[in-house]
Design brief:
about 375 residues, mainly alpha, about 70% helix
Length: about 375
């Protein structure tokens, strides 16, 4: 069995703080990984799509809060869309995060501590505090039923809207601890955890449960970096067509509460996501450029989208005419429109903050 620290990788290119490193390696040209000095577009495109799906998920719930949940067709379409991409968005996000963090796992602590640990923890606690302050501005959100003290205690254990940053840090530290262990043993343990975690629904809050479900995918990304690049280079339309019904069948089984199907559905979704991202960036130059550009900004969108979405909710609740909320067409289009506006708002805010001397909101000052 192969330990994690046997992975052959080299230093990755520079990237905004808090994001997984991009996939560069010094392998020979025959290697499935990209040649030294280059990086493939599909990992950036995949995580860009994953963060957009996260924003869409929250936007879909946000439209309910401002009164759009009054159309039978919309109420059928959007729960179905959410159910279909649920095993895709976070498993793919964490798989890419693990895959692109492979080289950092075995680097000296002094070389990676600031970027991989302290920066993420700083951003997590900073934004957890901001969310605690912002949530009362929208009292119908779930957290509004907790006192500030309860919310602080929840944040300390990773139970916060910013939980991805906490999970990324904890997963990375666990990966360093587990580096000497056989990879297959670690994957087996985390697979069992991912299998059992969905049974905790209703017992523990979503963020801790989702961390347990996604830990396996982070470790899978660490272990299967090279096969992922090989799959991305070799798979074609036929492979995607064959993978699609398998993925949909497993998603259906998961949402029918068939025990043990979440990690299987997640694996199928990650497999499908790698192929789809590779095909998209190989054949559509615009998507390749979008992936490179957006992929390096996923952290900014992640940490800012809840804040921007809350502001948009308040504006919509105050100024949106009742006739618009009651329109069936508006009910169907609202989650997409809100996703677009929220994402653009996050990108605009991320552009402005450093220029307003507020860059410390997105990066730990040195």
């Amino acid at each position: 069995m192969t330990p994690y620290n046997s992975a052959r990788t080299t230093a990755d290119g520079a990237q905004p703080a808090g994001l997984p490193e991009r996939g560069q390696t010094g392998r020979p040209a025959a290697s499935p990984s990209p040649p030294h000095g280059q990086r493939e577009a599909w990992p950036d495109f995949a995580r860009a799509c994953a963060i957009i799906l996260v924003v869409l998920f929250h936007s879909r719930h946000a439209t309910w809060l401002i009164g759009f949940q009054n159309d039978a067709l919309a109420d059928r379409i959007w729960p179905l869309v959410s159910d279909v991409n649920k095993p895709l968005r976070m498993p793919l996000f964490f798989f890419i995060s693990g895959m692109l963090a492979t080289s950092a796992v075995t680097k000296p602590w002094r070389d990676i501590a600031h970027k991989r640990v302290w920066n993420n923890l700083y951003l997590y606690f900073l934004w957890a505090a901001i969310y605690i302050a912002v949530i009362p501005a929208w009292p119908r959100l779930d957290w509004s039923s907790y006192t500030v003290v309860q919310q602080i205690l929840m944040a300390i254990v990773g139970d916060s809207p910013a939980w991805y940053l906490w999970a990324l840090t904890m997963f990375f530290l666990l990966a360093r601890i587990a580096a000497p262990l056989p990879a297959m043993m670690v994957l087996a343990v985390t697979f069992v955890i991912a299998t059992l975690a969905p049974t905790l629904k209703g017992t523990i809050h979503p963020p801790p449960r989702l961390m347990l479900q996604c830990l396996f995918f982070f470790f899978a990304g660490l272990r299967f970096r090279e096969p992922a690049f090989a799959l991305a280079r070799r798979a074609g339309i036929v492979t995607l067509a064959l993978a699609t019904p398998v993925m949909l069948a497993l998603i259906w089984a998961y949402h029918k509460n068939v025990f043990g199907t979440f990690p299987l559905a997640g694996i199928a979704c990650v497999f499908w996501g790698i192929i789809a991202s590779s095909l998209a960036t190989r054949h559509v130059p615009l998507l390749r450029s979008f992936g490179h550009w957006m992929g390096s900004r996923t952290l900014q969108v992640y940490v800012l989208h809840f804040l921007v979405l809350t502001a948009l909710l308040n504006l919509a609740a105050t100024y949106l005419p009742g006739a618009v909320k009651g329109s069936p067409l508006a009910a169907i289009a609202a989650p997409l429109l809100l996703t677009l506006v929220t994402t653009l708002g996050c990108l605009a805010l991320a552009y402005c903050l450093p220029r307003l001397k507020l860059g410390w909101l997105l990066k730990l000052p040195r």
